[in-house]
Design goal:
With about 270 residues, the protein is α/β, with parallel strands linked by helices. The protein is about 40% helix and about 10% strand.
Length: about 270
């Protein structure tokens, strides 16, 4: 039995049960329609059709019939042949553009992609890894703060400066932002003082793995036994410090130096 037919059977049973409860005055029309997930008008129409035609009046006449928008089998075969003979190696999106423009194809990209994958003409794209999936924001302000520094040359005649921004994860509200010659421990403490004194302590604090945030070993692994001044201060305040990936500046990438080797303040 097809899924649509089974679903129709379930819907029929639900309607007959609720119709019986309505006829026995257990439910009014509004309550019956709400239980079925339809409007009162639809419930009255179904009731009238059941009285006139019985269960046959409630059957979906579309079941068992081919959709008017279904791609004809000869056109589907032609699409496969065109791809194999003339457009081998094209992306599905590019191939669809050529079909519409040059071959009078009137169906959508999604059908084309699924059909070619089903026919084995193209392969499915590999599933994105977990690092590419969008993370849900924290539900309430103060649960997580982000801090990041980026290099900018906005002021004419002046050397590039670091923009230090601290914002809330839940709302995206910027609590602190300023320009400084070099990002480091001093800039982090300045931003944290501005935010903590105005908004209180957050539950967690998210940063990259810059050397003033974390001390790292080979391959960017965090040295948990050698905390920086920032990490020690956050620990004493009861704020969880969450690490992000290693960042590189353009000049560091050219010279092969990682950002984690840019020295901030030393341990005291």
């Amino acid at each position: 039995m097809r899924w649509t037919e089974a679903l129709q059977g379930v819907r029929m049973a639900m309607f007959l049960n609720i119709l019986n409860r309505w006829e026995s005055a257990e439910l009014n029309q509004e309550e019956a329609a709400e239980l079925l997930g339809v409007s009162e008008r639809t419930f009255r129409r179904w009731t009238r059709r059941y009285e006139e035609e019985g269960e046959a009046g409630l059957l979906d006449g579309r079941l068992g019939k081919a959709s008017g928008r279904r791609v004809p089998s000869d056109r589907a075969d032609e699409v496969e042949r065109l791809y194999r003979e003339r457009y081998q190696g094209f992306t599905v999106k590019h191939f669809h553009e050529h079909l519409v423009r040059d071959h009078g194809f009137g169906w959508g990209y999604t059908w084309l992609k699924l059909h070619l994958q089903w026919a084995g003409v193209v392969t499915k794209a590999p599933r994105k890894g977990a690092h590419r999936r969008k993370r849900e924001r924290r539900p309430l302000p103060g649960m997580m703060l982000h801090q990041d520094g980026s290099r900018h040359a906005w002021l004419e005649g002046q050397a590039p400066l670091d923009l230090i921004v601290t914002l809330d994860d839940a709302t995206g509200a910027i609590y602190s932002a300023f320009l400084i010659e070099e990002e480091g421990t001093a800039s982090t403490f300045r931003a944290l003082k501005e935010v903590f004194s105005e908004h209180g302590l957050p539950m967690s604090f998210y940063t990259d793995r810059g050397s003033h945030y974390f001390r790292t070993t080979k391959a960017g692994e965090i040295d948990r036994n050698c905390p920086t001044q920032v990490r020690r201060a956050l620990g004493q305040l009861g704020v969880e410090h969450i690490s992000g990936p290693i960042r590189r500046r353009p000049e560091d990438a050219q010279s092969g130096r990682s950002r984690r080797f840019r020295i901030g303040w030393s341990r005291s």
